[in-house]
Design goal:
Strand content: 5-15%
Structural class: mainly alpha
Number of helices: 7
Helix content: 55-70%
Number of strands: 2
Distance between the termini: 60 Å
Radius of gyration: 21 Å
Number of domains: 1
CATH architecture: Orthogonal Bundle
Largest sheet: 2 strands, antiparallel
CATH class: Mainly Alpha
Length: 171
C-alpha cells in the first residue's frame, strides 16, 4: 500500500470517528429533548419545574433562596419558575410564622397527585447508572466530556446540573 493511500485511509477513519461522535452527541441531545417533551405532554411540566416541585415536596417550607441553593439555580430563575407553578395551582406561598419577612413554599394536593405519577428527572436516571460504574469509567467519561466542552468552546457557559433542552424558563 502506498503512503498516499495510507493517508487517505486515516482521513476516512477520522471522518468516520467524527461522524460517530457527532451522532452520539445528537442522540444525547435528542434523549434530553424527548424526555422534556414527554414530561410536558403528559404532566404539563418542564424538567426544572419537576425538580423544583420534588424538592419542595421533600422539604416543605423552603424559601426561594433556600430552594435556589439546593438545586443550583439562580434565585431569579427559581422565582420565575415558582411563579408559573403557583399559577398552575401546584404551589402555594405562605408567610413564615417565625419570621414575617420570609415566605415559605408548599406543594398543593393537586401537585402531590402529579408527583406520584411523574417519572424521575432525567438526571436522576443518569446518576443512578453513572454511580454504578467503576471509578475509572466515571473519570474516563468526565475527562472525555470535559474535552468535548473545550472543543466546542463551551467552557464559559454557566449551567446547572439539570438535563433539559433549551432554556430553563419557558416564555
Amino acid at each position: 500500500m502506498k503512503t498516499s493511500e495510507l493517508g487517505n485511509d486515516q482521513d476516512i477513519k477520522k471522518k468516520q470517528l467524527c461522524s460517530e461522535v457527532l451522532i452520539l452527541l445528537r442522540k444525547i441531545n435528542q434523549a434530553i429533548d424527548l424526555h422534556s417533551k414527554d414530561l410536558n405532554k403528559k404532566y404539563g411540566l418542564t424538567g426544572p419545574q419537576l425538580i423544583i416541585l420534588q424538592e419542595i415536596s421533600h422539604n416543605s417550607g423552603l424559601t426561594i433562596t433556600g430552594l435556589a441553593k439546593r438545586i443550583s439555580l439562580s434565585q431569579g430563575t427559581v422565582t420565575d419558575i415558582v411563579y408559573r407553578l403557583e399559577k398552575k395551582g401546584f404551589l402555594k406561598r405562605v408567610k413564615s410564622t417565625t419570621d414575617k419577612r420570609k415566605t415559605e413554599l408548599y406543594v398543593t394536593t393537586e401537585c402531590e397527585k402529579v408527583l406520584d405519577k411523574a417519572p424521575p428527572p432525567l438526571q436522576e436516571t443518569f446518576i443512578d447508572h453513572f454511580t454504578d460504574l467503576k471509578d475509572w469509567e466515571q473519570f474516563m467519561i468526565l475527562s472525555s466530556l470535559q474535552r468535548i466542552v473545550d472543543m466546542m468552546s463551551a467552557k464559559k457557559i454557566d449551567v446547572s446540573p439539570i438535563l433539559v433542552s433549551g432554556p430553563l424558563l419557558e416564555r
